[in-house]
Design brief:
By secondary structure, this protein is an alpha/beta fold. It has two domains: 420 residues, Spore Coat Polysaccharide Biosynthesis Protein SpsA, Chain A (Alpha-Beta Complex); 59 residues, no CATH class. It is built from 22 helices and eleven strands. The chain has a nine-stranded mixed beta sheet, with helices on both faces. Strands 9-10 form a two-stranded antiparallel ribbon. Strand 3, helix 7 and strand 4 form a beta-alpha-beta unit. Helix 6 packs parallel to helix 7 and helix 17 crosses helix 19. The longest helix is centred in the first third of the chain and has 51 residues. The protein is globular and about 90 Å long. 39% of the residues are buried.
């Protein structure tokens, strides 16, 4: 039945809001329209970048190339073959998926919807939207889009708002009345909770949906409070669940609307362009590597599964140093792992685009990027080990290897820089010049490849690609040994572990010690590859330990 329901017992509250039917982008036009960003995507900007590369190439003489360390050149070449070969594999798979495989999947989904409409009826769609500490303009745009998409659902829709503030409740109910009216197939359910985190908000929302007793083939769109869905979301997504009973969830392409300086616009647009290629590549295996919290759609039977709800609400891993490590962030990784473990397919829909409103946690780029990377990579690494433990036979070899590569790449990305630093500092400074030319040239080629993902690319992408690779790898290696570091960027909340001050200090010292040992071993291996360190001769080892050199050589 259409209308408003209150999962928390609150009654109707009216509040006059004059501007709710305005265009969602009006209030942000001045911020999102950046002349500098637009210029960076022009032909002139790219010409300036090419001129810079050619200038450096002109001053890089043949003598400097000859004097460069052969070991460093060999090492860089070997890494390049591995890393760029792996990247090219993703690029080719992405194009196969989007150009060949997905059009057939789309046709099959549309055909399944036509054939099943008369016999099974149309699917009811639930929109679960979670909101906390998001500005009213963004909240209005998000719920406006959700209501418009819900109105277009042939089988009717229910919008479940999982919120904290009373102000959001007033705004959402007013939007519902203005957009949906009284005579509508759209029902609104509001559940209010304490501000204890997104996991609790999702769990309350899942249980509110369960109480609606959805049919097994109904679907649930889980939407973050800063994500604006397209009006045809239902039409373009629900058919995939009817076409394949093994599909448990799907996610879509994303574009960013950034509130911040030009560097944030460029950085976010780069991330989403790269994401589109990687998600398409993994989509070919029918197992994406994340079901983003921004907008992912699930079977209602999964959302109503008590085991799934428990996993999202109170997920954890057991770690050999940290003990039982509860998850604060990374609810999307929890839902993804549950579906992966239970053998469901997880699809990527490249022709549906969700707009995300990005509010950097700091007005300064480096602190903001650091906070976001700590959260993103922490979520990834906390789930990584248990996904690998499922095995390639369960996960699929390509998906399993991609998960494994997440651990390897954080070291291989730093290996080239480490080689150049060692050679440049201890042998020839020309190594720095050659490396600079290499970085500028190769990252620009990667930038041009992104034209396969987006219509325009920024001439500043190469610098941000390198930043993501190097600084991102530094953050990953840090988080790998400090998996207990968790913090929401918006809520500013952390997770207490109940340990005494002494126990916490011991754990921090042990994390730092293991991290330092890993870095030392990494640099030692790089130096051995370069020939700057040599493996000690048997006679030296024998002298150190008082052994017979000849017997030691025979043993070795």
């Amino acid at each position: 039945m259409a209308g408003m329901q209150y999962a928390d017992g609150y009654g109707p509250v009216a509040a006059p809001v004059d501007r709710l039917l305005a265009s969602p982008s009006d209030a942000r036009d001045a911020t999102t329209a950046s002349g500098f960003v637009a210029w960076s995507e022009t032909f002139e900007a790219h010409l300036a970048y090419i001129a810079l590369v050619l200038s450096i190439a002109c001053i890089t003489t043949l003598d400097s190339l000859v004097s460069a360390h052969s070991g460093a050149l060999f090492g860089l070449g070997l890494l390049a073959v591995w890393r760029y070969g792996w990247g090219l594999t993703h690029f080719v798979r992405s194009n196969i998926y989007r150009s060949v495989v997905f059009p057939k999947m789309r046709a099959k989904a549309e055909d399944a919807m036509r054939k099943s409409a008369d016999t099974l009826g149309d699917q009811h769609v639930f929109f679960l939207v979670t909101s906390f500490r998001i500005d009213s303009d963004t909240t209005a745009a998000v719920y406006r889009a959700a209501f418009e998409a819900a109105k277009r659902a042939p089988g009717g829709a229910t919008v479940v708002a999982s919120i904290v503030e009373m102000g959001d409740q007033r705004l959402i109910k007013l939007l519902y009345k203005l957009i949906c009216g009284e005579d509508t197939k759209v029902c609104l359910v509001i559940t209010r909770i304490a501000g204890t985190g997104k996991r609790d908000a999702l769990a309350y929302g899942f249980r509110a949906i369960s109480r609606q007793e959805p049919k097994a083939d109904d679907v649930v769109a889980v939407i973050d409070g800063d994500s604006i869905v397209p009006p045809d979301l239902v039409k373009k997504c629900v058919g995939f669940f009817r076409a394949d009973n093994n599909v448990g969830a799907l996610t879509t392409d994303e574009v960013s609307h950034v509130h911040g300086k030009a560097k944030f616009h460029i950085w976010y647009s780069l991330r989403f362009a790269q994401r589109h290629i990687l998600m398409s590549s993994n989509g070919l295996s029918r197992k994406v590597l994340t079901l983003t919290g921004r907008m992912s759609m699930f079977r209602a039977s999964i959302i109503c599964n008590p085991d799934f709800v428990r996993q999202v609400e109170s997920d954890y891993v057991d770690h050999w140093r940290f003990g039982r490590l509860k998850f604060l962030t990374g609810d999307d990784k929890s839902s993804w792992f549950w579906l992966l473990r239970n053998g469901y397919r997880m699809l990527y829909i490249p022709d549906v685009v969700v707009a995300t409103v990005e509010e950097p946690p700091s007005k300064y780029f480096l602190p903001a990027a650091t906070q976001l990377m700590v959260r993103w990579f922490g979520n990834m690494l906390r789930t990584n080990s248990r996904a690998l433990a499922l095995g390639s036979s369960k996960v699929g070899f390509f998906t399993w290897w991609t998960i494994f590569d997440q651990r390897v790449s954080m070291w291989t990305s730093l290996a080239g820089l480490a080689m150049v630093l060692l050679v440049g500092l201890f042998e020839t400074p020309f190594a720095f010049l050659i490396y600079l030319l290499w970085v500028l040239a190769t990252r620009y080629l990667l930038t041009l490849m992104l034209l396969n993902s987006r219509r325009r690319v920024s001439a500043f992408y190469p610098f941000f690609i390198y930043f993501n690779q190097i600084y991102g790898s530094i953050i990953k290696t840090y988080i790998f040994f400090h998996l207990n570091k968790q913090r929401w960027t918006r809520q500013k909340t952390t997770l207490a572990d109940g340990r005494t001050g002494f126990e916490s200090r011991v754990r921090e010292v042990s994390s730092a010690l293991v991290h330092v040992l890993a870095i030392t071993l990494f640099i030692t291996i790089v130096a051995l590859v370069l020939g700057q360190l040599e493996i000690p001769d048997a006679s030296i080892l024998a002298m150190a330990y008082g052994l017979d050199p000849e017997k030691l050589r025979e043993w070795i």
